[in-house]
Amino acid sequence: xxxxxxxxxxxxxxxxxxxxxxxxxxxxxxxxxxxxxxxxxxxxxxxxxxxxxxxxxxxxxxxxxxxxxxxxxxxxxxxxxxxxxxxxxxxxxxxxxxxxxxxxxxxxxxxxxxxxxxxxxxxxxxxxxxxxxxxxxxxxxxxxxxxxxxxxxxxxxxxxxxxxxxxxxxxxxxxxxxxxxxxxxxxxxxxxxxxxxxxxxxxxxxxxxxxxxxxxxxxxxxxxxxxxxxxxxxxxxxxxxxxxxxxxxxxxxxxxxxxxxxxxxxxxxxxxxxxxxxxxxxxxxxxxxxxxxxxxxxxxxxxxxxxxxxxxxxxxxxxxxxxxxxxxxxxxxxxxxxxxxxxxxxxxxxxxxxxxxxxxxxxxxxxxxxxxxxxxxxxxxxxxxxxxxxxxxxxxxxxxxxxxxxxxxxxxxxxxxxxxxxxxxxxxxxxxxxxxxxxxxxxxxxxxxxxxxxxx
Length: 456
Description:
By secondary structure, this protein is an all-alpha fold. The protein has 18 helices and no strands.
């Protein structure tokens, strides 16, 4: 008989410690928005320098994602998450002690290595540990922690705004880094990785912590069956047409997540609000409320994602975000930055974008990509797709200040409206719904659909 209390305690620990990397992801990408308010004044930064400082963490993530993803396939998910916690701590200390913009760019790149690894491995780890019936909800907690990290970064920015202590803004990330390191000491390895390495008895013991004996044996049977399919493994597997098609799909999903334009809100929201005439400290305060709303919306996503499905939430997200950005662009053309635009269009529009990103592309894209790749190359394939996400992130973060200075905020919003309509069309016509299916059933579907043998 299942010990439900033990099961819930174990799942809570997996979610908490497994997703601390998401919290650091959110904090380290979000804190730069608050710090830039003061760094720009101290270092007299040009738009190009702002782009370089903001984009350094993204370039690091582009490198760190495949690096840590490959290591996770070889050495396991758990030890690599432990190492990433150490990199987060070192990078945070380094960023807090800089004496030049060059040094800041270097340390933000180091932080990016861990951020990139966390963005690929954390949702994959949670998906592999979760029972099928709640896999979407458990994987959503990575996004909840990312939002929590964003809230903490904006609270830190708001609290330290009066002193302008941007060094402490960076240094505070050491605390969750230590929690991540200590937490992973007691966490279990992914049972799927263990079975792939022939350690079935160890995997069974881990699965029994969160599943009934019947569910455990059924899951092991499915994993062993999918592993029995002839597979090259490693880079040779990427030559197969079925994996190339899935990789394109996963890469586009994560690229389109960035093309929603949401991250321009995370990186530049204080700057945008100041440009609307709102005082610097009040702008950071609004950002705190903005990020807090994301936690509530993502909790709602966790409640419904295994019922509604990933695909429908992504479609709704594209439509609502796109038309909000269109409305904001039209309002700016008509009213400019006066009180009518700010109070009746801009702020309500930003709130709706926050809600529908969190319930759709924010969580849904990471859940979807953590589910679709075959077990033998899941770490490498997931991290390869994540590279596309970070390329899109870099593209947005690097070009937006230049776009803002050249065509203005209204046309910038309009461009992202068009991109959201493209992402809606792709999602509607191409994505396969994964809710209610085991990871092995999903792998079997794609192998059959794209011509690879199943059960050979």
